[in-house]
Amino acid sequence: MSSFLTELKATASRLSSSFQNSNPKEESINERKSRRRGYDVVKTSYTSLPVPIPEDFLKPLKNPEESIKVQRIEFENTVLKEYRGAYAVVLDGVLNEEECAMLIRFAEMSKGAHGNVVEGIKVENGVKDVDSEEADVGDEELQGPGNNGWTPALVNAGVGYEFLSTEYRNLDRIIWDQNDVVERIWRRVLQGKGIEEDIGVLEGKKWEKLASLGIRSGERWVGTNQGINERMRFLRYGRGQYFRDSAYGNADGERSFFTIHLYLNGSAQELEKDPSISKFPKDSKMLRGGATTFHSKDMKERLDVDPKVGRVLIFQHRRLLHSGDEVVAGVKYTMRSDLMF
């Protein structure tokens, strides 16, 4: 896997450089498509339709210490001792099952599904042809795109360019940009005991010694108010689909050091851990597989975090080799984004 990823990233870098040096006035979009090493690289852009979000959606929990269970992954006490000192934490109970289902529906609505059609705007796979800020959300009958807005996930090849590589990323995706929703999710996460103290501010010897995190001596990084990058990537994995391992930042000078995963449905393997369930139903529609897996560098050892509805996993970008394990039954839904500083 490591050699494949190295080759893939090198290809993306060459393609990005090629496109940035091209003259857009002399090329059409079709002419900008390039076939390199079997990949069709295309120019892409994404937009999100306005979605009416209820004011009480994802309001702060009244008793967070009872609702949210926090478990930090101490790698030195696992089979992955080589990641000693790396940061990863699991929070259970951040969202409930109904909230997760609503979040999936809202993401699909952002692409025109479930009757969320804005007059004067034509949207196909998240690409618009007029300014969405000039229109209001309508209540028309379902006219959304096929598959409720889910499309195959592409791989970044540089700013504004992507390509399809199912060997690396085999899943469907919805990209939804929404500041208010990510801020609400982040407020919930911060209700987890010790999370703000852990990663609200990054400075001092604790983080400086983790050179692989990308923090230099003397730097001080403070979490943004909304905490999570407004670009939410909703991911859907069907049977046989998976994700394989991959400096984060944005145009405003903000930077990311951590990934956040929000699991939107549960898995059979997680429920089977519950001692109160003596006989587990063999439901073919239930998710099996799909764990987020941390791998040793030699790929011989692994540590799984199984999907559980409302569970959040936060881990540092660098140093941790990870993947999304193959789904063997059912469908997996998750939302991925980055924490911004």
Helical percent range? Answer: 10-25%
What form results from the Cα inertia axes? globular
What is the CATH class of the domain at 53-118 and 169-340?
A: Mainly Beta
Number of strands: 24
CATH architecture classification of the domain at 53-118 and 169-340: Sandwich
**Arithmetic mean of pLDDT:** 78
- Proportion in β-strands: 25-35%
Structural class: alpha+beta
What's the CATH superfamily of the domain at 53-118 and 169-340, by name? q2cbj1_9rhob like domain
CATH topology call of the domain at 53-118 and 169-340 = Jelly Rolls
pLDDT < 50 stretches: 14-36, 119-144, 247-251
Number of helical regions: 8
Distance from N terminus to C terminus (CA atoms, Å) equals 31 Å
Task: Tell me the major beta sheet.
Answer: 9 strands, antiparallel
Q: What gyration radius follows from the Cα positions, in whole Å?
A: 21 Å
Which properties best describe this structure?
alpha+beta, Jelly Rolls, 9-stranded antiparallel β-sheet, 26% strand, globular
Notes on the protein architecture:
With 341 residues, the chain is α+β, with helices and mostly antiparallel strands. The protein has a domain at 53-118 and 169-340: q2cbj1_9rhob like domain (Jelly Rolls), CATH 2.60.120.620. It contains eight helices and 24 strands. It has helices at residues 2-20, 29-32, 64-67, 97-109, 179-190, 195-199, 205-208, 268-271, and strands spanning 34-36, 39-43, 69-72, 88-92, 123-124, 127-128, 151-152, 155-156, 161-163, 169-170, 172-177, 201-202, 221-222, 231-237, 242-243, 248-249, 255-263, 288-289, 292-295, 302-305, 312-316, 322-324, 327-329, 332-340. A hairpin with a 2-residue loop joins strand 5 and strand 6. The protein is globular.
